[in-house]
Amino acid sequence: MTAITRQLYHSLSHPTPSFLGGWIVAAGFVICWSSGFVGSRLAVAIDTPTLALYAWRFALATLLVGLWWGFRTCRSRRAIYLPSLAHEALIGSLTVGIYLLAMLLAVKAGVSVNVAALIGALQPLAAITLAGWWLGERSVPLQWLGMSVATLGAGVSVLDDFQGMGGAPAWAYGLPVLAVAAVTLGSVMAARRPATLPLEARLTVQLGAATLVFFMAAGYLDAGRVAPPPLSMDTFTTLTWLIVLATFGSYGFFNESLRLFGVGQSAALIALTPAMTLGWTALLFKELPGWLGAAGMLLGLLGAIGALAAKRSTPRAVPSFRPSSSV
């Protein structure tokens, strides 16, 4: 038995708290991140205006985290500057508001949540590409190869969804691409100017900006139907799912993942969310892609993980990306 094998065997048979903690954080991040795509599927299925439901979802989440921020501020009496708030509001509008709005509209138009998750998983790769142009981050050939394979996989899955159960018009598949562009732009903007506000302040402002985006979208795209959703078990279940898992769960596990693993490995975990979303939809909705869609997802996962692993092996780190909650 080699030294590496003995070390691996010892780690598996005598796990330390940090070993178990790392697995819990990684699993929690992937589960909560993918839960947002399933939440959008649940929201579309219930009999209530979806955009208004999302607007009130973010309003409730903003209220909860705002109370936390107010409590922490009263204790610390830390000064908050208006330019920092405006910067976080812009970041939140892009990485939460427009990103989730475009994804939700895609699902409403018939794009399957599996394909939406796969296209969304290209965001770290898009951030690497934009950062290379904007922030001067260098790319390596293996990274470009992985990105090409991931993009090919997304295209194959879109073709399968377009021909199969999705039934969405061709233009609807541009919405997840728009979502990726929005969250990528916001993430790179965040990387150019490191955050100065505490976590609870950033989350409150970002969720507040998303609330405004969805109320405006409901007023413009949904005939002004912005009334609170009716109280029912389906509404309560969907709101609880979206707020607890998709908002606070994904954001909390994402920040803990950054602390434990760093940006590169956290980005690689996002590449695992399409497979988890596929598991969610198979379990809850009995939906599975065809063989072409499965092949596309496999290509997307292999390409994304390969590209991120290639970037991680270079001397310079992957640029910071700041996705908030999933859909």
TrEMBL record:
Ranges where the EamA domain occurs: 22-157, 174-306
Example of a GO cellular component annotation carried by this entry: membrane
Transmembrane segments: 20-39, 51-69, 89-107, 113-135, 142-159, 171-191, 203-223, 235-254, 266-285, 291-310
The entry's keywords: Membrane, Transmembrane, Transmembrane helix
Chief location of this protein within or outside the cell: membrane
Superkingdom of origin: Bacteria
SUPFAM superfamilies named among the record's database cross-references: Multidrug resistance efflux transporter EmrE (SSF103481)
Location within or outside the cell: Membrane
Assigned protein family: Belongs to the EamA transporter family.
PANTHER family with a match to the protein in the record: EAMA DOMAIN-CONTAINING PROTEIN (PTHR32322:SF2), INNER MEMBRANE TRANSPORTER (PTHR32322)
Protein name: DMT family transporter
Organism whose genome encodes this protein: Vreelandella rituensis
